[in-house]
Structure formats: structure tokens, C-alpha cells
TrEMBL record:
GO terms for cellular component: cytosol. InterPro entries: Aminotrans_IV, Aminotransferase-like, BCAT-like_C, BCAT-like_N, Class-IV_PLP-Dep_Aminotrnsfr. It catalyses: L-isoleucine + 2-oxoglutarate = (S)-3-methyl-2-oxopentanoate + L-glutamate; L-valine + 2-oxoglutarate = 3-methyl-2-oxobutanoate + L-glutamate; L-leucine + 2-oxoglutarate = 4-methyl-2-oxopentanoate + L-glutamate. It comes from Phenylobacterium deserti. This is Probable branched-chain-amino-acid aminotransferase. PANTHER family: AMINO-ACID AMINOTRANSFERASE, AMINODEOXYCHORISMATE LYASE. It holds the Pfam family Aminotran_4. One of its GO terms (molecular function) is L-leucine-2-oxoglutarate transaminase activity. Pathway: Amino-acid biosynthesis; L-isoleucine biosynthesis; L-isoleucine from 2-oxobutanoate: step 4/4; Amino-acid biosynthesis; L-leucine biosynthesis; L-leucine from 3-methyl-2-oxobutanoate: step 4/4; Amino-acid biosynthesis; L-valine biosynthesis; L-valine from pyruvate: step 4/4. Belongs to the class-IV pyridoxal-phosphate-dependent aminotransferase family. Acts on leucine, isoleucine and valine. Its cofactor is pyridoxal 5'-phosphate. Its EC number is 2.6.1.42.
Length: 287
């Protein structure tokens, strides 16, 4: 059985899935998206992802395409039809199809909804975490509303390509003051020289990471200290450990920045412990 996609009310073979050429997501990047990790066929961090989806849509003045309950049922059905137990569910909502015009269509048109599901090789992901990954740095060049999870990802795509060409997995954006804002598809963390966890606060034009928020709950439950303030690439190189978080990466140790090793160049105990704790929490609370 092949892959199945959901497009505007219908489940269709993945290879036949399509949207109209005047969909505003395609022509204007006028839309948002969310990604859920899937554990044992269930959606992880569901509440956080739905809340962020609703906020992103509200900020762009796009109507929620259906109730949260209905959307949950559709996502679950997409996972079931694709027979995915471990993977990622991708949801995209755009303002819809209308004659090309920068201003919003008047009267409004129905939002477009697309869902796809992909398998993840958890064993390979765990092996990558055990080895650690590299990141590269790149100047922050994105728009001023990175708190909205829009489909406008060209700077992120270019940053990811830079990382790939350097043999790294992620790119960290660095602002005009020399501080890391976040990764191209993740939040950035370090365990500094004093053993304190540090990550940028979400008032600094970064995405309000759902995995980040869940991990903060895990960290506080473990009685660990967290300092939500920025750090530089040099701070990362001088740190005991570093890692990234996201629905795709979960908690992934970082062992080098721009080709230079962090500490002894291997994943540290804090990052590996937090990865295990986060996965346990995600499995327990998945719906």
C-alpha cells in the first residue's frame, strides 16, 4: 500500500495529491504549518502544537479550517492510513485559492489544508544522537516575525544547504549582536561552563518551540537550573555541552560549531539524559 495524503477534505494517493496553482501558499507563502512527532502511532506534544497552530493562524488572520477535535481525528486517520508507528505528521494550512493579489481575498475563501505523514527510523536517529552532530553559523537574515510558524522558509532552506555542504546537520542563525537566535529548524541550547542550561528566551524573535517547552517542563521537574538568555558561538565552543530541540530532532547533541569541537567532541551526559527523559515524556502524553 502506497503513501496517502490528505488534501482539502479528501484522502488521496500521495503521488496524485495536488493543490491549485493559485493557492496563496504556493504563490505568496501565505500559510502556516505544524509538525508532530509520532510515537507508537500517536501524536506527541499535541496540545502544544495545536495551540501554536491556532496562534499562528490568528496572527495571519487565517481561519481555523476545522475544530481542534476534527483536526485531531483527521491527523490520526492520516497516521493510520499510512500505517506509521514512528514518524512525523506534517500539516499545512494556507489562506486558500484566489486570484493572485497581495491583499487578502474579499470575501474570504476557505483555507487549504494538506497533511502528509512520513516514517522515521528511530534506531538510526538514536545512533545519530549517540554520535552527535555538527552545526554551522550563518547571519540572521529572516523577517521580524519568526514567532509565527509560516511556510516562508527560504532563509532556513539556504541555511540548511550551507550546513549540508559543510557536512553539518543544522545551522545556527547569529544576530547583529553576535548571539545565536535559533537553528534553521530547531531551538539551540548549551550547558555552559558553570553547568547551567542556557537557551534563548522566546521574546527574541524566535519560534516558540513546542519540544523546547516540553523539555523545559522536564528540566524543571528534574530540579535543574535553566537560564533563558542568549549565548554566542564562542560561548558554545567553551561550553560543556550543546544540543538542539525540535519535533524532528527531539533532543539532539551538538558536538561541533563551524568544524570546531565542543568540549571533547562527543555527546555529553546532560544532553543524552534529557533526550531519554523527553522521549519518555512524549510517549506517555502522546494522543
Amino acid at each position: 500500500m502506497g503513501r496517502i495524503a490528505y488534501v482539502n477534505g479528501r484522502f488521496v494517493p500521495h503521488g496524485q495529491a495536488s493543490v491549485h496553482i493559485e493557492d496563496r501558499g504556493y504563490q505568496l507563502g501565505d500559510g502556516v504549518y505544524e509538525v508532530w512527532a509520532i510515537f507508537s502511532g500517536k501524536l506527541a506534544d499535541a496540545e502544544g502544537h495545536f495551540a501554536r497552530l491556532e496562534r499562528s493562524l490568528s496572527e495571519l488572520r487565517i481561519a481555523m479550517p476545522m475544530s481542534r477535535r476534527a483536526l485531531t481525528l483527521v491527523l490520526r486517520e492520516a497516521v493510520r492510513r499510512n500505517r506509521v508507528t514512528e514518524g512525523l505528521a506534517y500539516l499545512q494550512v494556507t489562506r486558500g485559492v484566489a486570484k493572485r493579489d497581495h491583499a487578502f481575498p474579499n470575501p474570504p475563501v476557505p483555507p487549504s489544508v494538506v497533511i502528509t505523514v512520513n516514517r522515521t527510523d528511530r534506531a538510526a536517529a538514536d545512533a545519530r544522537a549517540a554520535a552527535g552532530v555538527g552545526v554551522v553559523t550563518t547571519p540572521e537574515n529572516r523577517w521580524g516575525r519568526c514567532d509565527i510558524k509560516t511556510v516562508n522558509l527560504l532563509p532556513n532552506a539556504l541555511a540548511k544547504q550551507k550546513a549540508r555542504e559543510a557536512g553539518a546537520v543544522e545551522a545556527w542563525f547569529v544576530d547583529d549582536l553576535g548571539f545565536v537566535t535559533e537553528g534553521a529548524s530547531s531551538n539551540a541550547w548549551i550547558v555552559d561552563r558553570d553547568g547551567r542550561l542556557r537557551t534563548r528566551d522566546t521574546n527574541a524573535n524566535i519560534l516558540r518551540g513546542v519540544t523546547r517547552n516540553t523539555l523545559l517542563e522536564v528540566i524543571r521537574g528534574e530540579g535543574l537550573d535553566v537560564d533563558e538568555r542568549p549565548f554566542t558561538p564562542d560561548d558554545a565552543l567553551a561550553a560543556r555541552e550543546a544540543f538542539i530541540t525540535g519535533a524532528g530532532s527531539l533532543v539532539l547533541p551538538v558536538v561541533s560549531v563551524d568544524g570546531k569541537p565542543i568540549a571533547n567532541g562527543v555527546p555529553g551526559p546532560v544532553a543524552m539524559r534529557l533526550r531519554r527523559l523527553y522521549i519518555d515524556r512524549a510517549k506517555e502524553t502522546a494522543i
